[in-house]
Amino acid sequence: MRRQGQLDHSRIPVAPLLATAALGGCSGIQSVHHAAGPHAGAIGTIGLVMYAGAAIIFVLVMGLTAWALLAPPDRRGWLSRPAVVPIGGVIFPLVVLTALLTYGLAIASKLSRPAPADALQIEVVGEQFWWRVIYRDPDGGPAFETANEIHIPVGQPVSFILKSADVIHSFWVPALGGKLDMIPGRANAFVLEAAREGVYRGQCAEYCGDQHALMAFDVVADAPENFATWREGAASAAAVPDAGDIQDGKAIFLAAGCGACHAIRGTEASGTLGPDLTHVGSRRMLAAGVLPNNIASLSAWIVRAQEIKPGSRMPSFDIFSEAELDALSAYLVSLK
Ligand code: CUA
Questions:
Q1: Which tens digit of pLDDT belongs to each residue from 268-309?
Q2: Which residues contact 183 (CB under 8 A, 6 or more apart)?
Q3: CA pseudo-torsion sign 195, 293, 126, 27
Q4: Which residue's alpha carbon is nearest to atom 1 within ligand 1?
Q5: Taking CB atoms and a 6 Å cutoff, what residues make up the pocket around ligand 1?
Q6: Is the pLDDT reported for residue 336 higher than 60?
C-alpha cells in the first residue's frame, strides 16, 4: 500500500512531460528553429538537410529489412546477391558521407568568414556565473564595460572575442549562431549578425560549476540609430536623480563597501570583481538572466544571493534595515 503523500509514479504522464521538456527548447527567443540571422539560418539549414537525409535513409533501411523478412521468397532473392553488400555497405555510405562532408564544409567556410575590419568588436568574458561585456572602439565608438546584456545593431556583422576568467564556459545564442567555447588563456573569435530586431536569449553551453544552468544573458538587436543612442548612454557615467531616498541609497551602497566588487562610473565605486552596475537599472534581467529587473527582485538578490544562486561570488548581504534595503534597491534601479 502507498503511504499517504507518496507519489504514484505510474500515474505521472512521463511521455507528455518529456515531450514538453524537449520541445520547450524549440520555441521563442532561445531556439535554433527560429533563426534571426544568417549564421543561425545556415546552421538551421544544415540541420534540416541532416534530419531529412537521416529520415530517408532510415525508412529505406527499414523497408529493405521488412522486404527481406516478409516478401515472398522468389521476390526477395535479389537481396542475397553478393553485390548487395559492397553496394549497400560501402559505396552507398561513401557517396552519402562525401556529399554531406562537402556540403557541410562549404557552409562552414561561409560561417567562419571574418568580420570587416571596421566591424563593432565586443569582448565577452565568461565568469562564474555571469558575463562581462566589453565594447571596444575600432569603429570609433566609445569603449566601456557592462554585463549580462549585449546590444548589437541589426544588419551588421559583429565581431565577438570570447574569453574566460576562470573555467571553460561556452557562449551560445541559438537564434543567432553556433556556440563557441570560452577557454582560459585563449581568445576565441567569431562573427554573429541579427537580421531583425528582437531580444535573443543566450545560455552558457559548457558545464562550469554549480550555477552553470543559471548563466544566461540577453542579446538585444536594435535598429542602428537606436543602437547608437543606447551605446552613447551605456558609455556615459551614471546619472542619479536628486530624490532623497535615492541619494540615501547611493550613500548606503558606498558605505557598505559594494564598490569593492562593483563599479558605478561617476562614483567612487570602481571594483572589477563583479558586474559593472553603472546602468544596471536599464537591463532586462538581474543575476545573469535569472530574475526580472525590479526593486523587489533586486532586494531579494542583495539579501539572498546565496539562496538564489548558491556558489556564486555574490555574498548574501542580510545586513540592512528594511528602509536601507529599499533605498539601496531604489538607487540601483534608478541607474538607467
Ligand atoms: Cu558558464 Cu556553464
A1: 999 999 999 999 999 999 999 999 999 999 999 999 999 999
A2: 164, 168
A3: negative
A4: 169
A5: 126, 129, 169, 204, 206-208, 212, 215
A6: yes
CA 202 to chain centre: 2
Could you identify the atom of ligand 1 that is nearest to the CA of residue 129?
1
Ligand 1 center to 141 CA (angstroms): 30
**pLDDT higher than 60, residue 12:** no
Tell me how far the alpha carbon of residue 170 lies from the centroid of ligand 1, in angstroms.
6
Q: Residue 296: is it exposed, middle or buried by C-beta count within 10 angstroms (0-12/13-18/19+)?
A: exposed
Whole-prediction pTM value?
0.84
CA 31 to centroid of ligand 1, rounded, Å: 18
208 C-alpha to ligand 1 centroid (Å):
4
Q: Which residue has the cell 548581504?
A: 317
Interval 171-180: pLDDT, tens: 999 999 999 9
CA 169 to ligand 1: nearest atom:
1
How many other CB atoms are there within 10 angstroms of residue 97's CB atom?
A: 10
* Position 308, amino acid: I
pLDDT tens per residue, range 247-259: 999 999 999 999 9
**Helix %, strand %, coil % of the chain (to 5):** 45, 20, 40
**pLDDT tens string 136-153:** 876 777 789 999 999 999
How many C-beta neighbours within 10 Å does residue 141 have? Answer: 16
